Each structure stands twice: as structure tokens, then as C-alpha cells.
Amino acid sequence: MSSKSPSGLNEWLSFLKTKKFPVRAGNLARLKTQIKRTEDTLENMQKNIASDPLLAFAILNEANRIVVNKHNEINTPFHAAAMVGMNGIHNLFKRFAPYETRNRQLPDNLTAFLAEIQTSYEAATIARHWSIENLTSHEDDIFWITLFRDAAKWLLWYYAYPVMQEVQNRILQGEKASQVEMAVLGCRIDELTVHLCTFWGTPNKVIESFLTKHIPNASELQSLAHLAHHPDELPGFTEDKRLTILMNNPLIFSYCASKVAEEASNKGWDSKNLAFFYRVVATVMHRRIGDIIKTAHFASTEAAKLYNHRGKRPMALQLLDPDLYTKNSASVKKKVIVSPLAQLKKNLTRSEHQGCKNQANLALKTIKQTIPNAQHAIIFRHNSTGFQPLFQSGYKLDILKKIRWNADSKVFGKLAKQKSASHLFGDKLSTLLLDLPDTSDQIIDEQSHLILASAVVNQQEMMLFWLETRTEFDEKDFKTLKQIVSLINNA
């Protein structure tokens, strides 16, 4: 597969439709064993099915695909397993990709995937408890609907981790989520989810949890929240028929719980944005806001006990902070996630980071964080004495020392005279091999991609970047390096 990320709704759909569902290897192996044993029943398998969300999700989708009466949808995995049967579950095994969690150090994409799953379980538990207190009799359905509405996001974190990390970092820096998703992905995640769920055969209730036909739009949410401004008083009533219908639809619990869990997970329980969704739920349930918050906190502690998936610390642990909701919490400096490029820009302004060597060190650290395709990197200093390698990553040091970096080179000569950047591969790279420093071709493979760029440090020095990979650099990689070079130029 090309390292270039998909862009736009159609490309992401094509990308994710072909992906297998990641399932914990132990759960999958246990289920295979249970199916082979004649003495095991579906009832005995329920705990195993429920313990792995994508295992349960696939079985639920399959049951709704084969069910005849679409007006009586199957919304729980246990009912779905009974409908699909042993053979049906066995036929689903080819759709799963097992992963291991026994290693102490998990890959970044797996850690993020498990963290998202845990946040979804926390949201589902909150929605379930709100539904129970509202006496809707739909608490089990609401739990699974809330959990599975994030399935597409789980897959994005697992199969497109760098892209989702960029989305999250920009949101945490204050950008609006929908605008970031359009800018980075080329589509909204909820839009992508609706199309994927339709393709997978997911129950309509999950899809409906995204549609403003069944949940309030932004203006309607504002109207509902406005009715519950005072925490110690019961909310007012609405005479709007449309709002009354929406308030009686339990899907509003699914939507608001997802927003609460996401906000609390990213910014903490004392985030000011949580109050808005608490007010909406208070109006729906005609309860005091304090009761809504208490239920959300209780549900998060239950989720911490029942659904700890190791991806992150359960958000219920934040409730043990003695300064939470107090004036003292304002004095505690919160950790804000800053993008590597923003951090580089900030560091380059500090006096202790001035000078070519210090800036080169910062630049290499940023390259490692932002250009994962760069298998090898060298950063040179150029001054009146010629080229001097300052830092490198990925190469064998003894080989680099044998290369005559100061030998005549048209390419290096051009880079030393003016700021420029080039992405070389294929025939173009082969043609320019003779114009690179003598013997440097020994660290270049015929499949290599090479990015060269230069930046002005001061009147006497320039910095030259050499990034090489045996796989492929994409346009995003090239653009990122040019941003790093630009920051060095402007330091």
C-alpha cells in the first residue's frame, strides 16, 4: 500500500472497507476453541463475545444482515449470536485480525486504538445509567448503540494513526473538530461512520444516533441547554413539539454521553464544555444538573472496574484529585499537547537553543516525530570549511565516516548557495547519483526516496537536510520537512 494517506470520503471508504477488524488474540483463540467443543453453548460464549467490542460488533452486523424483518432489529450481541449460530460465527473468523497485548510496550497505534475503545465503553456506561434513571427500558440497547457508534473511529486510530494524531493535536490546540476533520481527512468522521455502518449492515439505531432527524442539531441543543441554567433548580419545560419528540428519543443519551466522555478524557472532568451537555441531559430527564453529574461520575467508576482495556488510565481516576472542582485546580498547570512543529517553533526562539548545532538537534528530533517514513536522516552544517555531519539517525556510523562529504558535488554545491528542497526517486535519483558527494551512493538503494533541503542559519552557516527511505516518501512528508526548514530559516 502507498504511504500516502487517503483523502476525501470515497478514498477513506475504499481504504477502511478492506480492513479486517482488530480483535484480541486471546479472545479469538478462546472463541475458536469454544466453537469446536460440542459441550459449549452460545450462552457460555457470551462473556467472551462481550469482552471484545469488534468481535461483538461483527456478530451484530452479521445478524442484522441476515434477519428478514428489518422493523425488529437486533441491537445486542447476545441476541445476535443466537441468530447467527455457531456456523455463522465460525464464518466470520476470516474478517478478524488478531493483536497481542502481552508485551509491556505496545505499538502507538494499538495503544491509541485501545484508549479509544475504553473511552467508548465509558460513554456507553454513562448513557446506560442515564437511560436507567429516566426509566426508558432501552438501557441495554443504548449501551451497545453508544459503544458501536465509535467503531469507525477505532479503525481510523488503528490503521491511520499518524493522521488521527494530527487531528487530535489540532483539536486540543483549540481548533473546531469538524473543521480539522475536513482539513486533514477531507471528510467528517460522523459522515464516514454513517457510510461504513451502512456497508457493514450495522443496526439502523447506530446510524440514527448521528442524524439530526433523531437527535438535536446545534441550535436545538442550545435551546435544550438554555432550559437548565441553574444547577440547583429543576429545568423548565419546552412547548416546542419537535424538541419534545427529541427529548423522548433515548438516542439523545447516546449522543450526549459520547460528547461527555470525549471531553472528560481529553480535557478533564473540570472542563467548562461539559456543563453544556449536562444541561441538555438535565432538561431531557427533568432533573437537577447535580444529579446528572453524579450519575456520570458513578457510571465512569463502574466502567473503570468492568472495561479497563489498558490503552489509557480510566478517567474515573481523575475524580480522586482533591483539587478537582476547587479554586486550587486553577493553579495547577495543565498538560497541553503541543504539535512537534509548534514545539520546534517555540524552542527555536529560546536563547539556549541558538546556534547551528543546537538547532540541528531540535530539527532531527522533530523529523523523527513528524516524518515516520524517514528511515535514515543526516543533518549537515555548511560553512567556509565545507560540509560537516552534525547528527544522523538510522545509518551505520563507520560507513558515514568513509564518505567524502566535501568532495565536489553539483547537488550539494547548489544547496550551499541557496535555500532549496528536492524530492528525488526513481530515474531522477539515478541520474543525479554522480552529482552527489563521492561514494555517498553506497547508502542509497535503487528503491530509495531521497529528500534534500537547505536552510540558512546565519550569515556564515547553512544547514543541509538528507532524508532517505527504502520505502516511499509522500507529499505530506515533503511538505513537513519544508515546514521544518522554514522554521529554521525564520529562527
Question: What is the helix tally?
Answer: 23
Which structural class fits the helix and strand makeup?
Answer: alpha+beta
What's the mean pLDDT score? Answer: 88
Strand order in space, largest sheet: 4-3-7-6-5
Q: Could you give the order of the helices and strands? A: HEHHHHEHHHHHHHHHHHHHHEEHHEHEEH
Radius of gyration: 27 Å
Global outline? globular
Q: How much helical structure, as a percent, in the residues?
A: 40-55%
Characterize the biggest β-sheet: 5 strands, antiparallel
Describe this structure in words.
This protein starts with 8 loop residues before the first helix and ends with a helix. Helix 6 (108-133) crosses helix 17 and helix 9 packs antiparallel against helix 10. It has 491 residues and is α+β, with helices and mostly antiparallel strands. The model has no long low-confidence stretch (mean pLDDT 88). The strands form 2 sheets. It has a 5-stranded antiparallel β-sheet with strand order 4-3-7-6-5, sandwiched between helices. Strands 1-2 form a two-stranded parallel sheet. 54% of the residues lie in helices and 9% in strands. The longest helix is centred in the first third of the chain and has 26 residues, at 108-133. It is globular and about 80 Å long. Strand 3 and strand 4 form a beta hairpin.
